[in-house]
């Protein structure tokens, strides 16, 4: 079997995961640089080099560290950030700010100011409140910023209800009611400090269907036509968001990138031809698709509780704080017992986290070899939205992150210590006695 070495250990990106667990401790996020670069290569081959006038950015909310910024920069992709913290990380990593797109539905004055001062390439303006702030900041800073408006196309993707974003009833984006959108476009056309380049929509995350992207393009093309005819506004850029789904378990049937991008490009051509519009620059911004399958998390099995005729719980040394997705979205994961790859999957266990929460179950009914304390569990496809969504609930220190490049593991985020947990705390002097 592939990914198994002579010691019958699970290997990931060419490294023995049991040895990684020993060297770096558990829980441990392990990320393969080669797998990330392969996905970036696929974006170049099937999108950037295949079509004219296209761009791609990595949605950094999926997984962001300074090392990741360096990888994305060297792959020639832009970066989508969604907060001052993500922007700051990118700036500190030296990411070229002209290739950064700044998203978010409630950007603060400080966040926008940071973006303006650092000449971020595009601000994706979500609402009128933000536009007002940006007008003031750009005037104060004497800068001209390029923006896209995020609009809500009124299309609902088929995914968990917490990660759909394109439907009418969404907190994101400017509704596509003709008067509202006309007013706001007319307003920025007159602005000295803001240049509207076009529009952005994002339909949701972990999507497997391309027809909704086509439907989104259809809606935006109609908007482009109306704005051209009504206001003489020419849309130069159209950002179709991210959302391309990946494989977590055998229930997922992900599509190759070109399944989405070819559909998007075909729809753009058809719609622009139909409405007699020039082709805008098309931008995509996948996050999960680039990094999700490039990560695994290693845990050590501790207590095992067998409830006869009901179920067996095997508890790990992490759980909800390092992976909240099962609790939040009922997300399903697959896992392997890394030190027993040659053994038959003769038993079924439920993998429980160590949090004081009954809902802290990582995987229900996983087939495994007979388990014992000390076994190493490797949970697959944890590269996206695990490290980035981790918390310190129950005061569990967050795991370290190891990046593997050419079979060489390198620590890129240290494990949190108990002292880190106390870093920001102050005991008021009157309580110190
Ligand atoms: C605006 C925007 N762009 C891109 C993404 C990336 O999504 P995904 O990781 O599903 O590709 C998201 C998250 O869903 C988003 O909100
Ligand atoms: N955090 C979500 C994805 C959100 C995407 C951002 N809009 C997940 O883990 O699936």
TrEMBL record:
N6-(pyridoxal phosphate)lysine sites (modified residues): 61
Annotated pathway: Amino-acid biosynthesis; L-lysine biosynthesis via DAP pathway; L-lysine from DL-2,6-diaminopimelate: step 1/1
Annotated binding of pyridoxal 5'-phosphate, by residue: 243, 285-288, 385
A Gene Ontology molecular function term of the record: pyridoxal phosphate binding
Active site feature: 356
EC number annotated for this UniProt entry: 4.1.1.20
Pfam families, per the entry: Orn_Arg_deC_N
Cofactor(s) for this UniProt protein: pyridoxal 5'-phosphate
Keywords tagged on the record: Amino-acid biosynthesis, Decarboxylase, Lyase, Lysine biosynthesis, Pyridoxal phosphate
Catalytic activity: meso-2,6-diaminopimelate + H(+) = L-lysine + CO2
GO biological process per UniProt: lysine biosynthetic process via diaminopimelate
Domain (Orn/DAP/Arg decarboxylase 2 N-terminal): residue spans on this chain: 45-291
Binding site for substrate: 288, 325, 329, 357, 385
Domain of life per record: Bacteria
Keyword match Amino-acid biosynthesis: yes
Amino-acid biosynthesis keyword on record: yes
Role of this protein: Specifically catalyzes the decarboxylation of meso-diaminopimelate (meso-DAP) to L-lysine.
Similarity comment: family membership: Belongs to the Orn/Lys/Arg decarboxylase class-II family. LysA subfamily.
Assembly information from the UniProt record: Homodimer.
Name the record gives this protein: Diaminopimelate decarboxylase
């Amino acid at each position: 079997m592939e990914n198994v070495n002579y010691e019958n250990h699970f290997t990931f990106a060419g490294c023995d995961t049991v040895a990684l667990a020993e060297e770096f401790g558990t829980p441990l996020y392990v990320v393969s640089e080669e797998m990330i670069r392969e996905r970036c290569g696929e974006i170049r081959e099937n999108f950037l080099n295949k079509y004219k006038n296209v761009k791609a950015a990595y949605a950094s909310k999926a997984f962001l560290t300074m090392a990741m910024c360096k990888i994305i920069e060297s792959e020639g992709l832009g970066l989508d950030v969604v907060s001052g913290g993500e922007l700051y990380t990118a700036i500190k990593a030296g990411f070229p700010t002209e290739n950064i797109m700044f998203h978010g539905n409630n950007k603060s004055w400080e966040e926008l100011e940071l973006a303006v001062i650092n000449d971020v390439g595009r601000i994706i303006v979500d609402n009128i409140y933000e536009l007002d702030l940006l007008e003031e900041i750009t005037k104060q800073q004497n800068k001209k910023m390029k923006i896209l408006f995020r609009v809500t196309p009124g299309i609902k993707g088929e995914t968990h209800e917490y990660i759909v974003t394109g439907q009418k009833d969404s907190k994101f984006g400017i509704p596509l009611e003709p008067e509202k959108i006309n007013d706001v476009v007319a307003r920025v056309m007159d602005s000295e400090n803001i240049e509207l380049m076009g529009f952005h929509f994002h339909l949701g995350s972990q999507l497997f269907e391309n027809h909704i992207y086509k439907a989104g393009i259809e809606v935006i093309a109609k908007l482009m036509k109306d704005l051209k005819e009504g206001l003489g506004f020419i849309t130069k850029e159209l950002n179709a968001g991210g959302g391309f789904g990946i494989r977590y378990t055998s229930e997922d049937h992900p599509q190759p990138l070109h399944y989405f991008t070819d559909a998007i490009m075909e729809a753009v051509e058809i719609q622009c031809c139909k409405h007699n519009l020039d082709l805008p620059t098309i931008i995509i911004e996948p996050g999960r698709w680039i990094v999700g399958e490039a990560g695994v998390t290693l845990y050590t099995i501790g207590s095992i509780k067998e409830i006869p005729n009901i179920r067996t719980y095997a508890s790990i040394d992490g759980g909800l704080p390092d992976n909240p997705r099962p609790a939040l979205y009922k997300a399903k994961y697959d896992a392997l017992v890394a030190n027993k790859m040659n053994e038959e999957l003769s038993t079924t266990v439920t993998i429980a986290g160590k949090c004081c929460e009954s809902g802290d179950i990582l995987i229900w009914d996983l087939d495994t070899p007979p388990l014992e304390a000390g076994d190493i569990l490797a949970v697959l496809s944890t590269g996206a939205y695990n490290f980035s969504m981790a918390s310190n609930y129950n005061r569990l220190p967050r795991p370290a992150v190891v990046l593997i490049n050419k079979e060489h593991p390198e620590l890129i985020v240290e494990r949190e210590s108990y002292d880190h947990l106390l870093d920001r705390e102050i005991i008021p002097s009157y309580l110190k006695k």
